Amino acid sequence: MESYKLSVNNTNTALGEKNENFHNDSRTVRTEPLESTLNSRLGDKKFSLLLWKQAANHLHKKANSNEKHPNIFSRYTSIFGKRDNTPKDETNAEEQYISFNEYNAGSYVSNLDDITYVKHPENATIDGLYISEEDDIKIVNIEETFEHILATKSDISSALVAASLGNDTSFISITASPDWKFLLLETDRVKIFRHSYYSTYYVYSVDTKKMTPLSNTLNDRVTLAQFSPVGHSISFVIENDLYTSDMSKINRVTTSGGVNVFNAISDWVYEEEVFGSSYAHWWSPDGTKILFLQTNDTFVTEYKYSLYNPNSANNSYPEEQSIKFPKAGYSNPTPQVFVHDLSSAG
């Protein structure tokens, strides 16, 4: 395995300006085109407060109305656990107010489902293919002229029962291998930081219609998993160590992972300030090698903070948490880059 040292300098991050899009609404009074003057007037405090007040008032009226507005209330459910953002209590819509729980849960935010585009494993001329999870798991195209079913609702239910998982398991994400022979299904997600989380992953074979856990035991907390660009190999991270699987066996790539050493996954600094993602390993286009980042936080100063949890049994006293947080002038994580050749793996 080859190793490359990195030289990292501290850089300042500038926030880019965000240009918000506003929709025309016959109930909104405007005296001049908003789009052409918005950027110049956002600095006006009174104008900004007026915008927020009108938006909140508009949202409150919609919450107290029997009319359903597609751009505010988004209802989408399926057998795979898509969330329903419609407020649960509709018994008396005229007297309904927005609760803090509904606000924090995003009940009044439009739910736009991500589209995962895929390539045809044999015919590159078929374009615009993506995974559809409505009822069955299938590959379709935008023009609705192509359909390839990977697993039916009945197939998934039977596989769950056979694996002693129960047929009511819902999946947060479903990914197809590039050769369309396997599905990677994610459930039981627990958030860590902004972009990172623990999950349980299962692998479903399209040919055998069987489902098995990705890791050796269900107790393994997988922090991320992804297919190789070709075939159906999978790379994943458990307890800050990198693993690979070719569906016949699991190979452990690193053994140095721990509290201060992160292999193939971002530590807090790289996740938040550098990548904007927890992913810190990348497959070669031919799927034979993996380049991954290792960060060592041993010399990064620990920052302690209080966590107030009103649901805790001991809620009178806040819980103390800590995180490796490099302030200006102090040590950053020590990075190294490695290349793992899968052909040399045992």
Automatic annotation (TrEMBL):
This is Dipeptidyl peptidase 4. It comes from Smittium culicis. Residues 177-344 form the Dipeptidylpeptidase IV N-terminal domain. GO terms for cellular component: plasma membrane. GO terms for biological process: proteolysis. Coiled coil: none annotated. Keywords: Aminopeptidase, Glycoprotein, Hydrolase, Protease, Serine protease. GO terms for molecular function: aminopeptidase activity; dipeptidyl-peptidase activity; serine-type peptidase activity. PANTHER family: DIPEPTIDYL PEPTIDASE 10, ISOFORM B, PROTEASE FAMILY S9B,C DIPEPTIDYL-PEPTIDASE IV-RELATED. The keyword Disulfide bond does not apply.
